[in-house]
Amino acid sequence: MSASVITLETHEDLSHKLIIQQPTSGLSLQGRIRVPGDKSISHRALMLGALAQGETQIQGLLLGEDPRSTAGCFQAMGAEISELNTELVRVKGIGLGNLQEPGDVLNAGNSGTTLRLMLGILASHPGRFFTVTGDSSLRSRPMSRVVKPLQQMGALIWGRKDNSLAPLAIQGQALKPIHYNSPIASAQVKSCILLAGLMTAGQTTVTEPALSRDHSERMLRAFGAELSIDPETNRVTITGPAQLHGQSVIVPGDISSAAFWLVAGAIVPSSDLLIENVGVNPTRTGILEALSLMGADIQLENQREVAGEPVADLRVRHSRLQSCTLAGDIIPRLIDEIPILAVAAVFATGTTVIRDAEELRVKESDRIAVMAQQLNKMGAKVSELPDGMEITGGTPLVGTDVDSHTDHRIAMSLAIAALVSQGITTIHRAEAAAISYPNFTATLQQICS
Ligand code: S3P
Predict the structure, then answer these.
(1) Which atom of ligand 1 is closest in space to residue 189's alpha carbon?
(2) Any atom of ligand 1 within 6 Å of the Cβ of 188
(3) How far apart are CA 266 and CA 254, in angstroms?
(4) Fewer Cβ atoms within 10 Å of its own Cβ: the N or the C terminal residue of the chain?
(5) Which of 213, 284, 331, 333 to mutate to test the pocket of ligand 1 (most atoms within 8 A of CB)?
(6) Ranges under pLDDT 70 in the chain
(7) What is the bridge-based pairing of β-strands 309-317 and 272-279?
(8) Do domains 3-37+253-447 and 39-250 have the same CATH topology?
(9) Confidence (pLDDT) at 1
């Protein structure tokens, strides 16, 4: 085995070019790795820690740019958050209802989770005025999905395009409880409403059409909120006003980050990788089910529960993959993994069909269009569907210039595709990976050496 050559060039404008060259004699991926902390859990730990009474201690926080945006916003509203690190972050909560009016615009950067969850918190803080914005990607993403239910609760929110685009201005109010039937299975929508319900007297309920990730429900309960959950109807009710108490949170590794190595191990011949300490909450494990349908060899070892979340070590070995069809209720359970699943499908025999995933069009980029364009540039056969993709596997990929469109999951998915592409692949704007996976290139270099 000879190593593939992986180089990272940093340009004056701070953009990165990730250059991956296939070795002339085969590559295989070996080793034991850890992925950074779960992004969804990291955001929630910082937010609930800021709203709680007393101190919250967070171990394993993701040091990506998205949680940094959350920390920055809550610091600007009075929460004391120690320097961010993976060992131990201390959050001195200021108690529910005590957020200070910030003297400047709150900036959520690239993070939809920061902005959408925070809107529920801000809208329910009476007597304070807030303005929120984000980067150009976030400013083009739809906020009406959270603004509309919050308005039904009595929230006052203004923004462009009928109050649907950031920058947004919020005049905090005492809200009234509602029962919201969400048209989409979205943890951001569900969490926004539950967080608004924290300060709202009475019972605030959200019903979603399929179950989305339930980290908010788990953590709200652990912090002391009263929640009732009906799994038959995907209905969650929070009783307010609540009182939250600081907790100790241990953030497991992010299965969405592990997904890149699961697919890399499955498609690179002779590979054998152990990914330690990965969160395997059942609302997130659609990727394991999809890869298993495709014939991947993945084993869950050392399964345990850590601070209210299931965790395991994942072992992946190379195997031949076959196509599959993904649609319906599994989609919210693997929504962030579809770009890397598209890469797996390129190396599978047959035609993989992904449907019911129109949400991908309003993520950090239009992930359906961008993945189809970029993989097709490398020689793949991917066609766009309005709500998904059709991918015919088996055509060898050839390295070329591709672009992340500043979307972290696209940058990393293309890097994994490059490992099995002939010649040299150059991924432009690869710095986007730092949104959720700051050490991605270093780990790539480690397992390829
Ligand atoms: C997230 C929910 C999902 C996911 C995002 C993180 C969360 O978004 O795609 O990366 O932490 O709640 P939607 O709620 O829009 O599906």
Answers:
(1) 14
(2) yes
(3) 18
(4) C
(5) 213
(6) 1-4, 24
(7) antiparallel
(8) yes
(9) 42
Ligand 1 centre to CA of 39 (Å) is 10
Active site residue 230: no
pLDDT at position 449 is 76
CATH topology of domain 39-250: UDP-n-acetylglucosamine1-carboxyvinyl-transferase; Chain (3.65.10)
Closest CA to 345 of 376, 322, 368: 322
Give CA 446 to chain center in angstroms.
24
State whether the beta carbon of 413 lies less than 6 angstroms from ligand 1: no
Residues 267, 264: Cα–Cα separation, whole Å: 5
What atom in ligand 1 is closest to the CA of residue 191? Answer: 12
Ligand 1 atom having least distance to the Cα of 184: 16
Domain 3-37+253-447 homologous superfamily, CATH:
Enolpyruvate transferase domain (3.65.10.10)
Residue ranges of domains in the chain: 3-37+253-447, 39-250
Query: What are the structure tokens assigned to 316, written together?
Result: 């992946």
Please choose, from the candidates 88, 76, 83, the residue with its C-alpha nearest in 3D space to the C-alpha of residue 50: 76
> How far is the centre of ligand 1, averaged over its atoms, from the C-alpha of 116 (Å)?
10
Phi, psi of 32, rounded to the nearest 5 degrees = -120, 120
Q: CA dihedral defined by 222, 190, 138, 358, rounded to 10 degrees?
A: 130
In this structure, what token pair is assigned to residue 305? 């529960």
Q: What are phi and psi of 232, to 5 degrees?
A: -65, -40
Q: With a 6 A CB cut-off, is 187 part of the ligand 1 pocket?
A: yes
Task: Tell me, in angstroms, the distance from the centre of ligand 1 to residue 331's CA.
Answer: 12
Q: What is the pLDDT of residues 78-99, one digit of tens each?
A: 999 999 999 999 999 999 999 9
Beta strands in 69-108 (DSSP E): 80-81, 89-92, 106-107
Is the CB of residue 336 below 6 angstroms from any atom belonging to ligand 1?
A: yes
